[in-house]
Amino acid sequence: MARSSVIVIGAGVAGLSCALELAERGVGVEIVERGRALGDGSCSWMAGGMLAPWCERATTEPEVAAWGAPSIAWWAERFPQTVLNGSLVVAQSRDAPDLARFAARTERFEWVDGERIAALEPDLGGRFRRALFFADEAHLDPRRALAALAAKLEGLGVAIRFGIELAPRDAQADIVVDCRGLAARDALPDLRGVRGEMIVVRSPDVSLRRPVRMLHPRLPLYIVPRGNGLFMIGATMIESERRGPVSVRSAMELLNAAYALHPAFGEAEIVELGADLRPAFPDNLPQVRVMRRVVHANGLFRHGFLLAPELARGAADAVLSLLQSETNHADLPQRRHA
Ligand SMILES: Cc1cc2nc3c(=O)[nH]c(=O)nc-3n(C[C@H](O)[C@H](O)[C@H](O)COP(=O)(O)OP(=O)(O)OC[C@H]3O[C@@H](n4cnc5c(N)ncnc54)[C@H](O)[C@@H]3O)c2cc1C
């Protein structure tokens, strides 16, 4: 492998974003990925692709909204198919108090009534009396977005070498950016996996323009339109590191949510069932950690696409300061992502 100044290990959303941020800043970089193709073995392939900082604010730390909001423009610039239609949060009548509780914990939304819901999403007309509309949120198709980042990298002369498994200590480079996701646990022992399961269905009888979240006391779920009649239904969040196929219970809950949103989903075809482990630190926030010549960028948890741009900025800053530093072989203090 040719020596280059920076090697990024891992071609998930973290690795591709870090490499792109570095390449855009003029740093020579290459990527190695153990999978044989983009998405192969990557948690990023399973994501819903919601860019929803204010919806997430209702259940997460304020940093998620602060770091996530600028990512909408980052993606729109690099992936023009990013859909800027906002998102809608609904609840069945019996769960109406959940909607008020959700609203109380966040911002940048408006209450909408049944008439407005029907104007926003005609197929949901008459089905819900009230909803929260987050006009400034966005969504994207994660698989197409990853391909777009890879194409941009190729345009900038950055190679992605597939089928190579590399440990950071073995990389022939001045600086290594470790974006191995959960596989980086050998270096980051406080990283854990949080299981997520999703289902893709095809339903030509339903049309949605934006992600719709269904609040539920036990299992809040969402449906993201992917175009051409495809919908991603996600996602479970289970404190378990069990790998393996989607369980019957999870499949029933995900499909029930779709059916509750619109009965026409009962006739939908199941196209894909998928599961993976989200890499998460104890506080569920991403971090950049610098250890000698290795910059670890990890912990994206359930906010891979939402927070990858901010993580990439932090990682690129760390790489540039290492490259500029005459003492880049010395131990540097741990650096919290900010
Ligand atoms: C069901 C589900 C739904 C989700 N929905 C959303 C959502 O709507 N919005 C959102 O923002 N996030 C979502 N997420 C979270 C998101 O998918 C993750 O946060 C994100 O994918 C983590 O990205 P990553 O690049 O750190 O890890 P990964 O995508 O796992 O990438 C790591 C890469 O490193 C490679 N690798 C590992 N070890 C080596 C090695 N030694 N050598 C070479 N390559 C190696 C792996 O093959 C892999 O490709 C969801 C996740 C799941 C499971």
Number of helices: 9
Radius of gyration: 20 Å
- Assembly classification: single chain
Order of SSEs: EHEEHHHEHEHEEHEEEEEEHEEEH
Terminal CA distance: 33 Å
Beta fraction: 25-35%
Q: How would a crystallographer describe the biggest sheet?
A: 8 strands, mixed
Query: Low-confidence runs (pLDDT<50, min 5 residues)?
Result: 326-338
> Mean pLDDT, nearest integer?
93
Count of individual beta strands: 16
Helix-and-strand structural type: alpha/beta
Strands of the biggest beta sheet: in what spatial order? 5-6-4-11-12-13-10-14
Q: State the helical fraction.
A: 25-40%
Shape: elongated
What compounds are bound to the protein?
flavin-adenine dinucleotide
Notes on the protein architecture:
This protein has 338 residues and is α/β, with parallel strands linked by helices. It contains nine helices and 16 strands. It has helices spanning 13-24, 53-57, 62-68, 71-78, 96-104, 114-120, 142-155, 248-261, 304-324; strands spanning 4-9, 29-33, 50-51, 87-91, 110-113, 130-134, 138-139, 160-162, 173-178, 192-202, 212-215, 221-227, 230-234, 269-280, 287-291, 294-298. An eight-stranded mixed beta sheet has the order 5-6-4-11-12-13-10-14, sandwiched between helices. The chain has a six-stranded mixed beta sheet with strand order 8-2-1-9-16-15. β11 (212-215) and β12 form a beta hairpin. α1 (13-24) crosses α9 (304-324) and α4 (71-78) crosses α9 (304-324). The chain starts with a strand and ends in a 14-residue tail after the last helix. Mean pLDDT is 93; it is low at 326-338. Flavin-adenine dinucleotide (FAD) is lined by residues 9-15, 32-35, 41-44, 46-50, 165-166, 179-181, 183, 196-198, 234-235, 276, 278-279, 298, 300-306.
